[in-house]
Amino acid sequence: MSILGIILSVLSFLAALLFLNLLDEKLNLIISGALLLILSIVGLKKYSSIIIDTASITLYAVGGWMLIYGLDTNNTNLILVLCIVISSCTLVIVQRYLLSLLNMLCIIYAIFALIANNFENMIYFAFANALIVVALFLISNHEAFIISKRNFISQIQQPLRTALFLSTLATTAYIVLSHFDTYENSVNTSSIALYLTSITYAVAIIYMIHKIMLKLGITNTKLRITIYTLSLMILIATIINPGISASIFLILLCFYYQYKFGLSLSIIAMLFFLWHFYYNLNFTLLTKSILLLASGALFIAAYFVINITKDQHEEL
């Protein structure tokens, strides 16, 4: 609700400025933007309240936009670098959750925007996404160690994890949607990016399955080989849509590290990517319906098998 309030407040404030013709003088924009940035940081440093946080972050977003817009530059790279510098400096000064999350998302996507503006190659996005996945895993795996240090990283650990999680989903969705928008081109680097992303998530999923089996104490070699084989079969089937494998990886990661918000969002993301995969199949509507019906019957059968096995175990 706070984030939604921030978005609505920013839009309302900018609409008022446009209506009053206060955005014509660039010098006024620079001065006003700097003052709003300072005022928002002071408010966040001195007070601890949801209302103050929302108001301060609104002022921060408007002030940052006014400052950059007031410079009146057509150099996209310079604008993105300014976004990274402002966000990084604010992140060092104030470590409040909402503002830190906003700054981290600005930094991450300013970097992605720099890549998109300077390199017309989706492969760079695939490598950058792989780095985000590795960072998300490291932050989640060393959470207790990071918190125990009580340093700058420990203070931004939670918003950093959320920002990496959201960036993983958003970047994967961008790669998947870009591929389906450009697959008719003669030179299609998005296909390579798609397969690289699928391989990244496949390796991550196999590793997470390994960790979960160790945690559950599964030592039977035959059972472990069966689980790995079934997992690889599922991953091979989803190689042309890494969004599904990304959702599976995030579900396993959030389940293992008890990240409830991420788990809920991962399930919603899986439903979206499954719908997208189903929608883009080059089959007739009848064939799609049969496949969908068969998949539903398979999952229902699996549900009853699991429950029957559980009931027998409880009786013993």
Task: Name the descriptors.
single chain, 316 residues, mainly alpha, 14 helices, disordered C terminus
Describe the structure in your own words:
The protein is 85% helix and 0% strand. With 316 residues, the protein is mainly α. Helix 6 (122-141) packs antiparallel against helix 9 (157-182), helix 9 runs parallel beside helix 13 (260-279) and helix 10 (189-216) packs antiparallel against helix 11 (221-237). 29% of the residues are buried. Mean pLDDT is 79; it is low at 181-187 and 312-316.
Task: Give a short synopsis of this structure.
By secondary structure, the chain is mainly α. The protein has helices at 2-19, 26-46, 50-70, 76-93, 97-118, 122-141, 143-149, 152-155, 157-182, 189-216, 221-237, 242-256, 260-279, 285-315.
Kindly estimate the percentage of residues that lie in beta strands according to DSSP.
Answer: under 5%
Mind summarizing the main beta sheet?
none
**Proportion of helical residues:** over 70%
Quick one: overall form? globular
**Terminal residue distance:** 48 Å
Order of helices and strands: HHHHHHHHHHHHHH
Please report the number of helical segments.
Answer: 14
Low-confidence stretches: 181-187, 312-316
Q: Quick one: how many beta strands?
A: 0
Global structural class: mainly alpha
